[in-house]
Design brief:
Chains A, B: This is LacI family DNA-binding transcriptional regulator. The first copy, chain A, is α/β, with parallel strands linked by helices. Chain A folds into three domains: about 45 residues, lambda repressor-like DNA-binding domains (434 Repressor (Amino-terminal Domain), Orthogonal Bundle), CATH 1.10.260; about 130 residues, 3-Layer(aba) Sandwich (Rossmann fold); about 140 residues, Response regulator (Rossmann fold, 3-Layer(aba) Sandwich). The first copy, chain A, is built from 13 helices and twelve strands. The first copy, chain A, binds a DNA duplex through helix 2 and helix 4.
DNA sequence: TCCAATGTTGTTAGCGCTAACATTCCGCTT
DNA sequence: AAGCGGAATGTTAGCGCTAACAACATTGGA
């Protein structure tokens, strides 16, 4: 008698409305919106016209339930404020958009418990794929994802083992490369400012690379400093302030360093700022090197020597790998290494 | 005969499985996971134990369809790489997480057509709320959102009209405030480096504030420069490089400026870098001021004078307003102005 | 002219869950 | 012992869409 059940939500019209109005079956309407080519042009136009007239918008929630596919990707990052992540998120966004996928993001605040909670919550929405940052994850996270048989890409490192697929680069090698550059330039007393977050694989690898390369060159172990207390992490793991503090700590620990390598460009720029305040000439009195090649590295005087990473490409790859696997579930998708480059600028 | 239909997806067990196994009705299982308090402790424990044993995870897609609520928020930003946005996204993320909502994000690349496309696509997933950046939107976007009767919050400006709700601050007044500061300090020949993206309300307001304040002080119109071609925008509307170029353009246009105001801190830091390269003393030969109070403003020597904004609070507010409105659809939710502060540092 | 192959449209049976209502259970009062 | 109210649980009827298959047109070749 009335137009429908009490449970009809909001004001949306449904495929059934359009079908009735256009004088076709429900399935034909579905086809018009999902695979327009499978419907004759005449029918298609009639249905679309009716749909527009009724302000119809397909309810993808219903479609998801019926088809078992959500076209939704879950992305997990440590922090949303980190510009590294931002670049690779943009890469994913650009790929996913043209492939008609959407994504949800959540941050873990560098905590494995939160990561597990986030992954659990995401899984309830049955994403078609998941992207994780890094390759170290809690046992529970790993089991959860493996049991769900959902395609997973881990990013920013290429050192396994992986849950499923991965794209990134060899942080270990990259760190050796830039350390070697400093050594080749004649710097012998090298300090290192670590990323303050604990246990992130890619930073562990960078530190390992530094140590190995110095050992290979026959040097003393360097001074290593983590500029912030872990408790401060949540706000911003990588900060300019951390770089300044780090340099001061290094100077206290061993006054005679003549080069500083940082786990990220942001920290390195903080060091440059501190040098400026202290009147230290870069690179004459202190050489500085970073990691990441963010925009600021090229702009800050005298230019920051760094490792160029390819965050955008990592994001793009991750998305592409997921979509490929979703469409071809048996496809074997190999690790994609996006590489890195040493970029030498005025700071060394 | 077999355990179910061909259409059963993946390996997930369902509420029906848990109900059968635990010897209760489907509805009881639903209650255990949705409103645990409405079930006796004995039953709850039995059901949870069974659920865990079967690796059950409630399918929220199905729940969404049945309940007409998705607990999903759609967030639209111009760019994912912009650290302004990143801060307010983090604010939303933190609020939404504790309120058990998830969110999807998409970027428009500063294009109104893309904004409309994004909003259209999001609406198909029937989000419970939408957050837009800024208060200027295409006619179609506005109509779409109004017709959908979905709660909407617009952010970063408080000058209406609004689609629904809004939180932000008065960019116009903030720009007047920092301009007045420069005037009070005795600077008379002030250049302005605008944000290169076109037509963003908050930047229009900032420019308007600058002009009005200078007029009120009885000064000449200032030199205004937009550092990049609009074509370059998509990558990064606000860049250090843009600041450097902007200063050079200003110097060409009118060599005798003694202060520069920038539409964002990033641009202003670019100006500071360029000063350093040119050997200009800040603030003696050139005063510099920014907008935003990003972390770098406090760290870059000699400290950047700026307007502190409250991006995190804007994000938090936006999420809170949405959730309030979702729970109380008739609630009248007033504009929330988060204010701003002038922060004076060494650069002026 | 007839039939197979192809293209187009329709019918059926859910996807997994929850709102709304119905029923049962339990402890307590009278 | 009967009656009552509230708490706990169950039953019913979809939410709006799509997979799978069925049926019907249309075309062109034998």
């Amino acid at each position: 008698m009335t137009d429908g059940s009490m449970r009809r939500r909001k004001g949306w019209s449904t495929m059934a409305d359009v079908a009735r109005e256009a004088g076709v079956s429900l399935m034909t309407v579905s086809r018009v919106y999902k695979r327009p080519d499978s419907v004759s042009q005449r029918t298609r136009e009639k249905v679309l016209e009716t749909g527009n007239r009724l302000g119809f918008s397909p309810n993808s929630i219903a479609g998801n339930l019926a088809s078992g596919r959500t076209s939704m990707i879950g992305i997990v990052v440590p922090s949303l404020r980190n510009s590294n992540n931002a670049t690779s998120i943009q890469g994913m966004a650009d790929y996913l958009r043209q492939a008609s996928y959407h994504f949800m993001i959540a941050n873990t605040g560098y905590s494995m418990e939160d990561e597990t909670a986030v992954v659990k919550a995401f899984m309830q929405r049955r994403p078609d794929g998941m992207v994780l940052t890094g390759t170290r994850h809690g046992r529970e996270t790993i089991d959860l994802l493996k049991a769900a048989h959902v395609p997973v890409v881990e990013t920013w490192e290429t050192r396994g083992p992986f849950i499923d697929m991965a794209t990134g680069f060899k942080n270990y090698e990259a760190a050796r490369r830039i350390t070697r550059h400093l050594v080749d330039r004649g710097y012998r007393r090298i300090g290192y400012i670590d990323y303050p977050a604990i246990g992130l694989d890619r930073y562990i690898e960078r530190l390992r690379g530094l140590k190995e390369e110095l050992k290979a060159a026959g040097f003393e172990p360097v001074s290593i400093v983590s500029p912030l207390d872990p408790g401060d992490l949540y706000q911003d793991a990588s900060s300019f302030r951390g770089g300044s503090l780090g340099l001061r700590k290094l100077q206290e620990a061993s006054g005679d360093i003549n080069a500083v390598l940082c786990a990220s460009d942001i920290l390195a720029v903080g060091v440059l700022f501190e040098c400026q305040r202290q009147g230290l000439r870069v690179p004459d009195q202190l050489a500085v090197a970073g990691f990441g090649d963010f925009e600021i590295a090229a702009e800050v005087p005298p230019g920051l020597t760094t490792i160029r990473t390819h965050g955008y490409q990592i994001g793009w790859n991750a998305a592409e790998m997921l979509v490929t696997r979703i469409n071809q579930p048996r496809a074997e998708i190999p690790l994609r290494d996006v590489g890195y480059e040493l970029v030498v600028r005025g700071s060394s």
